[in-house]
Structures are given as structure tokens and as C-alpha cells.
Amino acid sequence: MKNIYFLSDAHLGSWAIPHPRQQERRLVRFLDSIKEKAAAVYLLGDTFDFWYEYKYVVPRGYTRILGKISELTDAGVEVHFFIGNHDIWAFDYLERECGVVLHKQPLTTELYGKVFFMAHGDGLGDPDKKFKLLRWVFHNRVCQKAFSAIHPRWSIWLGQTWAKHSYLKHKETGVEPYMGENKEFLVRFTRQYMQHHPNIDFYIYGHRHIELDLQLTKKARVMILGDWISQFTYAVFDGEHMFLEEYVEGESRP
């Protein structure tokens, strides 16, 4: 039985991250290290810091990661790509060219007899009204078509600049540490959701850039995956056990 892997928030291509190519290579090396052991890989959002597809144009760069994803899918490994709040604008390129399964909504699925609920995590219980408005604008098809009318020379620059500003703003204030079960919005959302979906075993999220492994009930467990900017964390399910691990060059450790 092969493993299933989950990771999120690499923010590849960020103009605010030092040595972005080194970061991309590290993720590629990780994917290469698991290619023989993996049945599936779930990328739970914000794989790219900014990604916008035109009908005939896609963002420059990302050759190594796209090549490695294509290698995995060509070898029969399922790669599931969830849009996040930075790479909302993935349409059909990654599906057609790289063979990924694209998810624009949360996914409930059964893996090795266990039921998983997976999502990037943005928009799930977040009380921030400004973020909710911005998210609505980014998902709105009319706004997307209007943005597509801008020449890529300027629109992609605008998107990368916005993403850099967002990252630096959060870096300055710091990632909000785990706020506890009563305040952490993804935990609050999960508690409400599980009342009507008692069959789910694992809730897996990204977005928050924190590591969390919390047993909510005897059955239900929630995990937040950290990131691939400084933590290099991921979850792995072997069909029986679920672990949150950190990638160290050449090895993995709990």
C-alpha cells in the first residue's frame, strides 16, 4: 500500500522570499524523494504566490515544479491541486498540460477506508470582512474577465506586487500563532461542520501557515499543514496512521 501526501502554502515565485529558485528546487527534491512511495499527492492551495492563466498565456517560470508534477502524473501518481487565495486563477492549463486534478471547492473523499475533508481554508469561518470582500472580488467571473483584458505585462506584475505586499505585511506582524480551539476559525468551522457530517475522520487545511494536529473527538481529527516557506511540513497517510512531518534534506522525520 502506497502513501498519500498532503502539503500546502509553498508560495512559489514570491518576490518577497529570498532565493525562490532554491525553495522551488527543495520542493522538487521532496516530490522526487516520494515518487516511488506515493499513490497520491494533495497540494492544498497557494502552491504559487500568484498564478493567473490567460487563454494563450501562463505565468513565466515554475519549469522545475511543473515538470516534476508532470513526471508524477505520467507515472500514475494522482496529483490534486487545490486553488488557494493566491492561485485562484487556475483554469485548465494545469489539468491539460500537467495532468493534475483541479479542485476549486473543498473536497470530501474516501482514502483507504477513511473519510477526508480537504480545503485550502480561506473563506471557512474567517470573520475578517475585508478579506471576505476581497475573496468575493477575486472569485467573481466578471472581475476575472475584466482583469484578463489587461495585458499580461502589467497584470502579472500587478499580481506579483500585490502578493509581495501581502507577504511582507504578514511577515512584519508575524503569523498569528495558534489561538486555541475557541478562537481558531478553522477549528470553529470544523466543529460546526462535523455536527452535520459525523462520518468524516480527517479535516486537512492549509492557509494559516501553522502546524496543528488536534484530535477533536474520538473519530474526528483536524490538521493544519504549516507551509513550505520556512517550515517545510507535510502530512502523510499510510492507510492506517496519519503523521505530520517535516522535510529535512535527504530524510523525513516526525
Layout of secondary structure:
Blueprint lengths: L2 E5 L12 H15 L3 E6 L19 H12 L3 E5 L10 H6 L2 E3 L3 E5 L2 E6 L9 H11 L1 H8 L3 H22 L11 H12 L5 E4 L5 E5 L5 E5 L7 E5 L4 E7 L2 E3 L1
Parallel strand pairs: 1-2, 2-3, 3-4, 6-7, 7-9
Antiparallel strand pairs: 1-10, 5-6, 8-9, 10-11, 11-12
Helix pairs in contact: 1-2
What does this protein look like?
By secondary structure, the chain is of the alpha/beta class. The protein is built from 7 helices and 12 strands. The protein has helices at residues 20-34, 63-74, 93-98, 129-139, 141-148, 152-173, 185-196, and strands at residues 3-7, 38-43, 78-82, 101-103, 107-111, 114-119, 202-205, 211-215, 221-225, 233-237, 242-248, 251-253. The strands form 2 sheets. A 7-stranded mixed β-sheet has the order 4-3-2-1-10-11-12, covered by helices on one side. Helix 1 (20-34) packs parallel to helix 2. The chain is globular and about 55 Å long.
Helix content: 25-40%
Total count of helical runs of at least 4 residues: 7
* Strand order in space, largest sheet: 4-3-2-1-10-11-12
What is the C-alpha radius of gyration, as a whole number of Å? Answer: 18 Å
The best one-word shape is globular
What is the overall pLDDT average? 88
What is the structural class? alpha/beta
Q: Which regions are unreliable across 5 or more consecutive residues at pLDDT < 50?
A: none
Q: Terminal Cα separation, in Å? A: 20 Å
Q: Secondary-structure element sequence? A: EHEHEHEEEHHHHEEEEEE
Number of strands: 12
DSSP strand content: 15-25%
